[in-house]
Structures are given as structure tokens and as C-alpha cells.
């Protein structure tokens, strides 16, 4: 007993042999054709002969004939499942892999192709286990109710608006202080430059004193010059430190004197009140 596949292969082989014989016959007939016969007439004869041979061989099984015709029409040479997918049809008429029997795949096929997928629609509903897992996931992932989420969202929006308002107020306040900051920065810069200029002038004076001490021009890198300059700088730092100390003591004495004066005035006022 022949199977459908073996029968189809035998018919395809017979068609190919018939076509080859027709081609040979047509070529042999061309030897006896007159030179005036056109190429178009030869092609028409070959096509007619191939058509007759095809009809004779495939009249025994119309389904097989139609299958072979469809196969010959498929010029893309795509596989059946790929061609079905391209034309929005169910890729597989029957399961060809373990994944085609999974619940997820069947649900996907029904969702994409509907009743043409030959899938039971009841499979698309949650089972009791899946429904319990879904509810547990939602309980853990979204513990708050809808009302609580709405209230939380509104509270967050108010906090965000408050932060924006506070930041804008700070920016306005800082802009008002900008001119003051510019003046302070300019004053600090001028003070620093002034101190650097004074320090440079002071050092220049020390260098000049050292040169006058030797009585002739000495190179600043000379060891004697460096030693005397360092000595002069120490003396100068000591004098500046002493001056600061005296200035601090003078301020302290002035402050003590003011406090004593204020205490005496308070005592005098107290005495006057007691006498009254």
C-alpha cells in the first residue's frame, strides 16, 4: 500500500520525466521544422504538451494534484509554517514540538488567530491556582487600595509643589543678595591684592636694607644675602607680632575701662534711687 508521500514523489518524478521527454521531442522536432517556423510556436507546443502530460498524471488524485499545484505556486520557497505566518494563518495545523502543547502557546494562538486556531477558549481563563497566584502577587506588589494610592499621589504632588515653591523663594532671596555678595567678593579680592602688595613692598624694603648693609650689590642667591634676609624677616615678624599683641592689649584695656565706667554709672543710679 502506497503512502501519500511516496505517491506524491512518484507522481512528481513522472511529471519530471514527462517534461524531459517533451523537451527532447520538441528539440528533435525542431530538426524537421522549416527555417520559417518561429520560436513562439515551439514554446506554445511545449507548453501544451506539458499541460496534457500534467493532466493525465494527476487525474488519479485531485487532492494530490491540488497540493502539487500549490507547491508549484509557492515561488518564495518558504516553509509552510513561515508562509502561513506571513499570510496571517495558523502556522502549524498540528503540534510539532512540545512547546505547541503548552498552555501559554495555546493561549497565544487563540489570542492571535481566534477560532481558526482550533484551541478551546476555556483554556484562556485563569485556573484556580493561577488566580490565587495572581491575587497574591497583587497583594504583595500593590498593598494599598485605590483610594490610598490616590491620596498618596495627591500628597506627593503637594509636597513636590511645596519644594518647588520653597526653591523659587530661595532663588528670589539669593537674587536680592546678589549685589551684596558681589560687593563682598570685590572687597575680599581688593583686600587680598592689597595684602599681597604690602607684603611685596615689605620684602623689597628688606632686600634693599640687606644690600645697604653690605654696601655693594649682592646677588639674591648668595648664601650671605639669604642668611641676612632671613634674619631681617624674623625680626620683622617678631616686631609685627609684638605690635599685634600691644594692639590687642590696648583693646582689652579699653574694654575693661568701659565696663568699669558702666558699672560705676549703674552703682550711681542705684544709690540715687535708694536716696529717693
UniProtKB/TrEMBL annotation:
List the subcellular locations: Mitochondrion; Nucleus
List where Basic and acidic residues composition bias occurs: 234-252, 261-276
Q: Which domain of life is it from?
A: Eukaryota
Q: Where are the residues of the annotated region Disordered? A: 234-276
Q: What is its main location?
A: mitochondrion
Q: Which InterPro entries match?
A: Ribosomal_mL64, Ribosomal_mL64_sf
The record's GO CC annotations read: mitochondrion; nucleus; ribonucleoprotein complex; ribosome
Q: Does the keyword Chloroplast feature in the UniProt annotation?
A: no
Annotated keywords: Cell cycle, Coiled coil, Mitochondrion, Nucleus, Ribonucleoprotein, Ribosomal protein
The UniProt family comment states: Belongs to the mitochondrion-specific ribosomal protein mL64 family.
**Task performed by this protein:** Acts as a negative regulator of G1 to S cell cycle phase progression by inhibiting cyclin-dependent kinases. Inhibitory effects are additive with GADD45 proteins but also occur in the absence of GADD45 proteins. Acts as a repressor of the orphan nuclear receptor NR4A1 by inhibiting AB domain-mediated transcriptional activity. May be involved in the hormone-mediated regulation of NR4A1 transcriptional activity. May play a role in mitochondrial protein synthesis.
Quote the protein name from its UniProt record: Large ribosomal subunit protein mL64
Protein source organism? Chironomus riparius
Amino acid at each position: 500500500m502506497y503512502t501519500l508521500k511516496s505517491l506524491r514523489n512518484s507522481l512528481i518524478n513522472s511529471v519530471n520525466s514527462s517534461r524531459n521527454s517533451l523537451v527532447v521531442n520538441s528539440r528533435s522536432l525542431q530538426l524537421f521544422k522549416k527555417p520559417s517556423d518561429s520560436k513562439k510556436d515551439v514554446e506554445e507546443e511545449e507548453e501544451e504538451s506539458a499541460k496534457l502530460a500534467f493532466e493525465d498524471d494527476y487525474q488519479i488524485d485531485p487532492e494530490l494534484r491540488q497540493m502539487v499545484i500549490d507547491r508549484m505556486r509557492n515561488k518564495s520557497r518558504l516553509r509552510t509554517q513561515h508562509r502561513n505566518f506571513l499570510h496571517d494563518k495558523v502556522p502549524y495545523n498540528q503540534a510539532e514540538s512540545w512547546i505547541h502543547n503548552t498552555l501559554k502557546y495555546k493561549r497565544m494562538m487563540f489570542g492571535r488567530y481566534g477560532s481558526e486556531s482550533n484551541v478551546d477558549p476555556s483554556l484562556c481563563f485563569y485556573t484556580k491556582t493561577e488566580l490565587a497566584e495572581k491575587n497574591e502577587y497583587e497583594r504583595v506588589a500593590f498593598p494599598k487600595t485605590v483610594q490610598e494610592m490616590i491620596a498618596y499621589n495627591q500628597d506627593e504632588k503637594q509636597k513636590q509643589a511645596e519644594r518647588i515653591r520653597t526653591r523659587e523663594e530661595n532663588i528670589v532671596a539669593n537674587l536680592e543678595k546678589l549685589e551684596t555678595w558681589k560687593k563682598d567678593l570685590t572687597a575680599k579680592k581688593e583686600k587680598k591684592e592689597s595684602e599681597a602688595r604690602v607684603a611685596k613692598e615689605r620684602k623689597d624694603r628688606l632686600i634693599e636694607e640687606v644690600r645697604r648693609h653690605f654696601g655693594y650689590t649682592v646677588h639674591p642667591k648668595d648664601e650671605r644675602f639669604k642668611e641676612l634676609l632671613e634674619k631681617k624677616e624674623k625680626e620683622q615678624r617678631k616686631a609685627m607680632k609684638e605690635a599685634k599683641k600691644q594692639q590687642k592689649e590696648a583693646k582689652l584695656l579699653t574694654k575693661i575701662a568701659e565696663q568699669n565706667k558702666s558699672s560705676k554709672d549703674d552703682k550711681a543710679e542705684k544709690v540715687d534711687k535708694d536716696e529717693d
